[in-house]
Each structure stands twice: as structure tokens, then as C-alpha cells.
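Journal club prep, notes for RB
We'll compare a predicted complex against what the paper describes. Inputs for the acetyl coenzyme *A case:
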Amino acid sequence: MQQNTGIAITGSGSAVPTACLENQAMTALVETSDEWITTRTGIKNRRITSERESLSSLAAAASLKAIAMAGITAQDIDLILLTTSTPDDLFGSACQVQAALGANHAVAFDLTAACSGFLFGMVTAAQYIRTGVYQNVLLIGADILSRWVDWGDRTTCVLFGDGAGAVVMQASASDKLLGFELKSDGTQNHFLNLAYVPNTQELAPGITVSKGGYQAITMNGKEVYRFAVQKVPEVIDKALFRAHLSAEDIDWLLLHQANQRILDAVAQRLHVPKDKVISNLANYGNTSAASIPIALDEAVRCGKIKANDTIAASGFGAGLTWGAAIFKWGK
Ligand code: ACO
């Protein structure tokens, strides 16, 4: 019997922390206003993870919903890919998710590519399915950037929120992943960082150890904005070319939810009408690797995205990294 090496995305799920921080509440933390945040970003609320919640608990909750929608069980999963920049454990959190799900046949590991993580993870998962190695992959995008935001820096703290989203990718006779393109440019790394800062200690004469910690997120918003508006349409065009499609064939434009102005500008450059642009960033802010799967899951569950709709998804962010994938939803 011939093995299926096509790819179908058959289930989605999402989970966000309970606590909701509104723009108005941000005015007690930094000099800002609901008006500034709304007009410059489109964000109204963001969810903030409490000490009772964790990256792995959010990821597991999102995963359970995706697994149920796909109609499989946790034991059917061959690979768990957790895309995150904010694991509970620097050694990785995917294995904690595996244990929480009881997915005891799955190999599990983390993948880090900031806000492009979910896109990079989708393409990575696809390679394992295409080669016939794995049939059922659980791909998760989850981040808790609130742990790493400087809550006194108004240029970054208003932007980010926490959450998790997941999809099940399965080997299929018909191939629904139509094209992709991934990019990295480390020469622009300094525009967006969550960097390790050394604190040197001398262990023995002439031998020092750098026992530091991570500083808060720093970002040159203007440069990242410029980069996104230029590079995202280019990479979507390239992925469309590989899929033998054009922008008119897109049913839904599903971008990393960073800023409504970026979503609008990218849609305009691609000549995609506004009603085809998925946007939920008003409710969650920028949830990094989680933003695409949360937006996808909400659009699927409310009946907006239907089986066989063509989706152009694109992630972009720290690295710098960016990428796009063109796929059809469903079995
Ligand atoms: N409230 C009030 N005023 C503010 C705030 C705030 N929260 N933040 C900045 N300002 C002020 C600035 O100090 C500046 O004042 P000045 O003119 O007196 O100097 C003024 O508002 C304008 O600031 P700009 O930085 O020019 O504002 P801009 O319109 O560029 O918007 C923003 C800033 C929202 C950050 C935008 O540049 C942006 O969205 N950039 C992209 C970010 C992004 O997409 N990141 C994605 C990747 S994230 C990842 O990978 C983890």
C-alpha cells in the first residue's frame, strides 16, 4: 500500500489565560491612553497569565481541543512540536505538554522562531509527514510574553498578550499544503530582542562564568513595522507562486496579529479586500507564536473559515524571521 504524504490540517484549538487587561488599566502603569493604543495598534485587551497558569497548561488546553476536532486521540500523535520563545523550562516545555496529554507515543520538542514560530513549525512538521516518517503531528504555538515585558516601557508593554493555539496536521491522500516560503535575516537581529545579559563571576583565578539572566523585550517598533509591511507581501507572493496561485485565489489572509495597521497595509499591497482579513488582535494583542493558531481556531469555530477555503498565512518577528504558507483548511 502506498503511504499518504500529502498534508491536511484537520483540527484546531486555542486557550488563553483568564485575566483580561484593558487599555484603560494600562494608563495606571505607563503614560498612555486607550485612544493612542487603539488608533496606533487596534489593540483593546490582552490576556495575562497568572501564577496558577503556565505555558504548558495553556498549550495542553489548546491541544486537547485540536485533537478532539481532528477526531483522533492523544495516543495517535507521533510528533508534538511546541513553537514558543517563552517555555516554562529553558530545556523545553514540549515534553511537559506530552505528559499532560498522555501522548505517550509522541516524540516532543520545542522550536523557537519568535512570532514566526507557528509558520516555521508548520513547515517543519510538513517535512516529517512528506517523508512518510510521521502521520499525525500536533503543532502548538504558545507564548507568555507578559513574563518578559518591561511593564514600565510604554513602547512595548501595550502590545503583547499571552495565549496558546494548536492544530493537528495529518498525512492525507490529498495535499492541502500548497506552498510555503521561509526567511531569516540575522543582520537585523538588534531590532527586536529578549537577550541574555551576562553577570560575570570569577570561579577560579582566570576562569569566569557568565551567570546572568534575560533582560526585558526591547524593540525598535518603527524598523519592525517597516520590515513587516515590506517583507510580508513579498513572502506571501513567493508562497503563492509556489502554490501556482495568485492573491485573487485567497479566501482568507491570516497574518501574525501584531498591529491592525500592519494587517491593513499588507492586505492593501496584495489587493486583498478587508473582509478577507482575519483579525482578532483587539481582544488579545500580539501573542507571538500563538497569534496565528488562535485566530485560525476562532475563525474556524465561528464558521468563517470553511472546509477547503484557501488560506494565506504569514508570520514575522524577531530573528528577524518571516514566512508564509498557503493551505486549504480541513480534511
Ligand atoms: N502610549 C502613548 N504614546 C506612546 C506609546 C504609548 N503606549 N508608545 C509610544 N508612544 C509615543 C512615542 O514616544 C512617540 O512620541 P514622540 O513622537 O514624542 O517621540 C509617539 O508615540 C510615536 O511613536 P512611534 O514609535 O512613532 O509610534 P508608531 O506609530 O510607530 O507605533 C508601534 C509604534 C505600535 C510599536 C509600531 O511601530 C509597531 O507596531 N511596530 C511593529 C511591532 C511588531 O509588529 N512587532 C512584531 C514582532 S513581535 C515579536 O516577534 C515578538
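Talking point for the session: The first strand starts at residue 6 and ends at 15.
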